[in-house]
């Protein structure tokens, strides 16, 4: 019989390109340095609190720590990823690495079960590791039930708590953990990683497209990789991916639309604001993203008015240098300050509005009345 190649199962890119060692972490130099020293000295504390924005590598890092402590080649900052322990942790079926999603398992009984499990010695690994995701969603009673175990765990047990909102956790819990703070990943670092992924997947992509994807992710690597894949799915032929495809896929304002709207505000051009808002509604753009783009661009213009270098701001802004300079000449600081507050308030209100498009128009018209020429 002829050899029949088995088609490899598709793996989502955000999992395929998940970091596999401490050195693979993008944009987290401080976390890297601390963990490298702790693991190299085999002195990882009994409890770590990994906090920071979504998609910055907290849960991935927790799994890397678990592999680093349990790799069959020994405690190492560069786990092999191939031994039985590493493979089990990567596949999520290790008996010694337990993950608890506190978003759905946040009660006292859930923690009591975890505490009971923590009393057992490792089955096949060196160290038992308990990863609690969204740890801030544990109830106060559950957190209190956890205190004694966090303070005096077994020698063979580590607790890794990951959260986007550490301030919601009890101070008594936080004080028993070594904090590792993850920062939003810079736009340039995200874009560089996306370029590496695109090259590995064998397709070309414009730098402006990379920057647009990186900008939209707000410092989160996971979201940017997911968006890169989504944009790739809309690719046509062998031509490099263009930036217009990003705005088409995300239903967000493109740079031309942002500049047009802000220029209309600066000129007091209510007629064109109304026309543009009608087109936005007809195009079914995501109003949340529309407000986000306007608010971010408005802030960029304000930075230039306050003395920032427009060329420097343009490196991460949706607006180019010339547009930033032109708008900074037309909008004074008072108008920008009032407008910033209005945009921010409207952005929060549209979450409960039945007609967010009207909020957009009303807000832009109020900006005209607040200033402009």
TrEMBL record:
Gene3D superfamilies associated with the record: 1.10.8.60, 1.20.272.10, P-loop containing nucleotide triphosphate hydrolases
Enzyme class, spelled out: transferase
Keyword Cytoplasm: no
Entry's EC annotation: 2.7.7.7
SMART domains linked: AAA
Pfam families per the UniProt record, alphabetical: DNA_pol3_delta2, DNAX_ATPase_lid
Keyword Transit peptide: no
Annotated signal peptide: none
GO cellular component term of the entry, any: DNA polymerase III complex
Swiss-Prot/TrEMBL GO biological process terms: DNA-templated DNA replication
Record domain AAA+ ATPase: where: 44-186
SUPFAM superfamilies found in the cross-reference section: P-loop containing nucleoside triphosphate hydrolases (SSF52540), post-AAA+ oligomerization domain-like (SSF48019)
InterPro entries: AAA+_ATPase, DNA_pol3_clamp-load_cplx_C, DNA_pol_III_sug/sutau_N, DNA_Rep/Repair_Clamp_Loader, HLD_clamp_pol_III_gamma_tau, P-loop_NTPase
Assigned keywords, A-Z: ATP-binding, DNA replication, DNA-directed DNA polymerase, Metal-binding, Nucleotide-binding, Nucleotidyltransferase, Transferase, Zinc
Family that this chain belongs to: Belongs to the DnaX/STICHEL family.
Free-text function comment from the UniProt entry: DNA polymerase III is a complex, multichain enzyme responsible for most of the replicative synthesis in bacteria. This DNA polymerase also exhibits 3' to 5' exonuclease activity.
Stated name of the protein: DNA polymerase III subunit gamma/tau
Gene: dnaX
